[in-house]
Specification:
- By secondary structure, this protein is α/β, with parallel strands linked by helices.
- The protein has an eight-stranded mixed sheet with strand order 3-2-1-4-5-6-7-8, sandwiched between helices.
- The radius of gyration is 21 Å and the shape is elongated.
Length: about 270
């Protein structure tokens, strides 16, 4: 039997996931979308050939429901969905910081829930999507989630207890790199380069370094040492980074992000 998948609350990440599934071979006829605004629903239908329905209709018709609304809107959505979601539906949450127990308490007893934390590189098919099982989710449900999210990048299974750490490291991770690129571009301008040239140099350095980290199999320390010659330019720069506590600042920053994820999960604001 053909499986139907519905993406509920289809914003930027939801649309990226939808387009990735279609590029990966999913038939538009097997996909449903919901959107808060009718014009947005019409846009998705025109762009991808998928059927736009109400949240209740999606819950009744789809075998898998992917909830991509903002965390603060999730309670309202679940109240709307609960009367229409049978216990055999797979519910996948893409909301940061909300544990699977939150969904299990509000849906029919035994409903399988899978929690997925993805990141914005889903927009260019380079996401890292971290997948965790709820109480009633089986290995087959996890595989189903992987099949869906692999269309926009890589997937990784972790225990749900590690989701807050993954949110700090990977969910927020792209922002840290953008911050570093911004700072390095400003440094390039200070050193006399035009902004566009400084930007191009830093972005390509970042791409090249990332590919080497992914493909070489070398530890990052080894790759850094390969660039760092005795008494050279790089070691002088590294010394200044260490003098200014950049390593310690990054560790503290990720701990702060982890702690904030825990606060959101506990509902403390």
């Amino acid at each position: 039997m053909t499986q139907k998948v519905a993406v509920l609350g289809t914003g930027k990440i939801g649309e990226a996931l939808l387009s990735g599934m279609i590029r990966g071979g999913w038939a538009p006829s097997d996909l449903l979308v919901t959107a808060r605004r009718p014009e947005r629903a019409a846009q998705l239908h025109e762009r991808y050939g998928v059927e736009a329905v109400s949240n209740a209709e999606a819950a009744k018709a789809a075998d898998t429901l992917i909830l991509t609304v903002k965390p603060q809107d999730m309670g309202t959505l679940l109240t709307e969905l609960a009367p229409h979601v049978p216990a055999d539906r797979l519910v996948i949450s893409g909301a940061a910081g909300i544990p699977t127990s939150y969904f299990e308490e509000r849906l029919a007893a035994g409903t399988p829930v899978v929690r997925v934390m993805t990141n914005t590189p889903a927009l260019v098919d380079e996401a890292m999507s971290v997948i965790s099982a709820g109480t009633h989710a089986t290995a087959a449900h996890l595989t189903r989630a992987e099949e869906i999210f692999s269309g926009v990048g890589k997937t990784l299974r972790v225990p749900e207890s590690q989701q807050d750490a993954c949110t700090a490291l990977s969910g927020s991770g792209p922002a840290y790199f953008y911050f570093l690129v911004e700072a390095m571009t400003d440094a390039g301008i200070l050193l006399g380069l035009p902004r566009d040239k400084a930007h191009d140099l830093i972005v390509q350095a970042a791409i090249g370094a990332a590919v080497m980290l992914r493909d070489s199999g070398e530890h990052p320390v080894k790759l850094r040492e390969n660039v760092t010659s005795p008494a050279g330019t790089t070691i002088n720069a590294i010394r200044e980074l260490e003098n200014h506590g950049v390593r310690a600042a990054l560790i503290a920053a990720l701990e702060a992000a982890r702690d904030r994820s825990r606060e959101l999960a506990s509902g403390s604001g």
